[in-house]
Amino acid sequence: MLKKIKDEFGCIFERDPAAQSYFEIITCYPGVHALLLHRVSHRLWNLRLSWPARFLSHIGRWLTGIEIHPGAKIGCRVFIDHGMGVVIGETADIGDDCTLYHGVTLGGTSWKKGKRHPTLGKGVVIGAGAKVLGPITLGDGARVGSNSVVLKNVPAGATVVGIPSHRVNPDRKVQDAQRQAIADKIGFEAYGMTADISDPVANAIDHLLEHILKLKEQVEAMQEAMQEHGIDINMPLPQQQDWADCRVEPGEDGRNSG
């Protein structure tokens, strides 16, 4: 029994630096209590003892704040960290070594019978407050950012963020760095909060910065083409003024700063 507990919950030491001992994990981690109760309720559910299974699931929800339908299939070494507010639907299927944080919902988008909840591959990590809805599949090693809403399949190893979720594209890192440099020049600090902020003003300025980059690339290409044909154009673009040089310190405009 002790060996099985170590195999099942030893992974918590790797995923939670706050964990100190097996005794602490067994006695103080609500995610562990919820999963242990689910193992029993799931067996009762498979034996067609639906009411005892649902009642035990209800007890688990009352004790831990984690609601797991007894019909849900959960693999080995799954870790529900903090756990409060987690909801896992009847037809959800969670693979081995997955990690769910508090506020996660694996829900359905239909009232019809049958498969209506997500399927998670091995090693999937879902951030706090994320909602994964419908009979979709998250491939092995997929990552879901906090507070994201996922409605479509996620490929193995991919990372998705936002509402609705979209895949983070690693090929855009260079372009994002260029946009950030321009944003720093003009004092636009939305990226300081998050690159995927759902603020319409921030998004509008983001598109404007991307448009400026495209125009700059086109002007440079035109200059190169004209120089190849012997046309020398010496029209340097004005330098971008650093936003810090434009700031007015209190009292410099002649008004009392108070």
UniProtKB/TrEMBL annotation:
Q: Which Gene Ontology molecular-function terms are recorded?
A: serine O-acetyltransferase activity
Q: Extract the Pfam families matched here.
A: Hexapep
According to UniProt, the reaction catalysed is: L-serine + acetyl-CoA = O-acetyl-L-serine + CoA
| GO biological process assignments | cysteine biosynthetic process from serine
- InterPro entries found in the cross-reference section: Hexapep, Hexapep_transf_CS, LbH_SAT, Ser_AcTrfase_N_sf, Ser_O-AcTrfase, Serine_acetyltransferase, Trimer_LpxA-like_sf
- Which EC numbers does the record give? 2.3.1.30
- Domain of life of the native organism: Bacteria
GO CC, sorted alphabetically, is:
cytoplasm
Q: Does the keyword tRNA processing apply?
A: no
Keywords, alphabetical: Acyltransferase, Amino-acid biosynthesis, Coiled coil, Repeat, Transferase
Residue ranges that the Swiss-Prot or TrEMBL entry lists as coiled coil: 205-232
CDD domains referenced in this protein's UniProt entry, alphabetically: LbH_SAT
Q: Its family?
A: Belongs to the transferase hexapeptide repeat family.
Question: What protein name does the entry list?
Answer: Serine acetyltransferase
| Taxonomic source organism | Candidatus Methylumidiphilus alinenensis
- The gene is cysE
